[in-house]
Amino acid sequence: MRERGIVSRAYRAIEAQRLVAMRRRGGCMSSLLGGVGIGLASGFLLLTLGRIAGISGIVGGLLGPPGPGDRAWRVAFVLGLPLGAALVAAASPDAALVVFPTRGAPLLAAGVLVGIGTRLGSGCTSGHGVCGMARGSARSFAATATFMVVAAATVFVVRHVIGVAS
Amino acid sequence: MRVLAGLAAGTLFGGGLALSNMTSPAKVLAFLDVTGAFDPSLALVMGGAVATTTLAYAQVRRRARPLLADRFELPAQTTIDARLLAGAALFGVGWGLGGFCPGPAVASLAFGHAESWQFVAAMLAGMLVMRGR
To answer: In angstroms, what separates the C-alpha of A67 from chain B's closest C-alpha?
Structure first.
């Protein structure tokens, strides 16, 4: 038990350092600008293709039976996501900093839950949280409030009740 | 043209995610860790995104139709039902557990971490389970 405590504290210290470093480099402007970029992309997708920029829906639509002429733009969008990330990281290397507090089986479980939950709930942080709320959709407000509260509660339980080293 | 539009939208979206470090689960989890190492950045990202999208949507919706499609494909459902809330809750657990949601996970593939691929594979598996349901 004592050894686990020491290891936990070590991980937390490393994690805290990384977060502080990210915050110092990141700052308010990167967050706001990134958000604006997301917003502009969403507006652009609605303007050109008449679609909601909900990534779970865009990806989910690829997994189902293909609608008429519906696949190509989805593939292009999905490929664009890492492309855009790579371009930004080329200009600003801090953008490429990725830290995984959760790994292994819990991360896989998280992925499955996200996959099932976003399809069952017809959306995610982009679909409901950004686009749905921007449309004034009551469904999206309800969904967003739900997943925000549940996600925060999950983190609380994992980090402060169970006490898993993050 | 539709393909180019999709590519441009995805690229801009992914760029925004990376710029704001939403592609890093640690950053996201720090926001969700309200009683712990709280980092409010995600609120700024969401705020900037929602504000921009609201303005953009208001402009775009004035049009009769999109530039490269016959009509707007907007969700028609309005009722808040158990399916929506259950799905949102499950998604919330997954997001709180892993710190990844679909967009940032796919965007983070650019940085080549095994964990990104693992998450995306698991996410696709979960989505496939829901196919047709």
So the answer is: 13
pLDDT tens per residue across span A91-127: 999 999 999 999 999 999 999 999 999 999 999 999 9
The Cα of B104 is separated from the nearest Cα of chain A by a number of Å equal to 8
Give the span between the Cα atoms of A60 and A66, in whole angstroms.
11
Check CB contact under 8 Å for A147 and B110.
no
Q: Is B124 left (phi over 0), alpha (psi -120 to 50) or beta?
A: alpha
- Which residues in B lie closer than 8 A to residue A64 (C-beta atoms)? 131-132
* Element at B68 (helix H, strand E): none
Distance CA A106, CA B6 (A): 33
Query: What is the token pair recorded at B8?
Result: 């441009």
Closest CA to A103 of A162, A163, A164, A153: A164
Number of CB pairs < 8 Å for A and B? 515
Contacts A42 to B, Cβ<8 Å: 9, 13, 49, 52-53, 56-57
- What does the alpha-carbon distance between residue A31 and residue A3 come to, in Å, rounded to a whole number? 38
* Window 83-122 of A, Cβ < 8 Å to B: 83-89, 92, 94-103, 106-122
Predicted ipTM of the assembly = 0.96
For A26-52, write each residue's pLDDT tens digit: 589 999 999 999 999 999 999 999 999
Distance CA B109, CA A76 (A): 15
Q: Which residues contact B125 (CB under 8 A, 6 or more apart)?
A: A111, A112, A115
Q: C-alpha angle with apex B16: B12 to B21, nearest 5 degrees?
A: 150
Closest alpha carbon to A51 in B107, B133, B2: B2
